[in-house]
Amino acid sequence: MFILRHGEAGKRISHGSSDFDRPLTIEGKKEVADIAKSLKDIGVKFNFIISSPLKRAHETASIVAMTFNKENIMENWDELKPNVHVARELYRRLSQKFKQDSSILIVGHEPYLSSLISEIISEDVTSHVVLKKAGLAKIRITSMSTQSMHGELEWLLTPKLMKNISTLR
């Protein structure tokens, strides 16, 4: 399982404006495109791409899907909206739709994604992972059910590291 935080998004215009429609910035789109290319260059593959329905996450997931020619395997899930933090609903849906070893990309928001990663990789409630904008985590799922997921953190990469990965090959 791969977990990607959306790229850099525009600022909120006012308190009354909708956070739902905030798009990626030009820099955010370029950064996500570079990251997607690096992932493709090192042979990463996805069986499915799941995104929060908010515009900035959906745009991030769409850029990755286009890079991998996988637009037909992308869905928006309300369980990934910010401030929802109902991991049980996400676990239930993931366990019903996918096998434990499926290669899934989840695209969403903070602080939900960092909490999700921390919960999956550690039973210690004080442990905390921080996922930067356009940062990526790779988790090898060791068990999953409708109530929980457990796994081992394999990668926790900043955008800068990911963009440089393909140059190391």
Task: Please characterize this protein's 3D structure.
With 169 residues, this protein is α/β, with parallel strands linked by helices. It has one domain (2-8, 21-168): 3-Layer(aba) Sandwich (Rossmann fold). It contains 5 helices and 6 strands. A 6-stranded mixed β-sheet has the order 3-2-4-1-5-6.
Strand-helix topology:
Layout lengths: L1 E4 L20 H16 L6 E4 L3 H13 L6 E3 L10 H11 L6 E5 L3 H10 L14 E9 L4 E9 L1 H10 L1
Parallel strand pairs: 1-4, 2-3, 2-4
Antiparallel strand pairs: 1-5, 5-6
Helix pairs in contact: 1-2, 1-5
The helix-and-strand class reads alpha/beta
Following the backbone from N to C, one meets helices and strands in this order, namely: EHEHEHEHEEH
What is the beta-strand fraction? 15-25%
The largest sheet is: 6 strands, mixed
- What is the CATH third-level topology name? Rossmann fold
Low-confidence stretches at least 5 residues in length (pLDDT < 50)?
Answer: none
CATH level 4 superfamily: Phosphoglycerate mutase-like
User: What's the number of structural domains?
Assistant: 1
CATH class annotation: Alpha Beta
Order of strands, main sheet, comes to 3-2-4-1-5-6
CATH architecture: 3-Layer(aba) Sandwich
**What would the principal axes of the Cα set say about the shape?**
globular
Q: Using DSSP, what is the number of strands?
A: 6
Can you give me a brief rundown of this structure?
This protein has 169 residues and is of the alpha/beta class.
Kindly list the characteristics that best describe this protein.
169 residues, six-stranded mixed sheet, globular
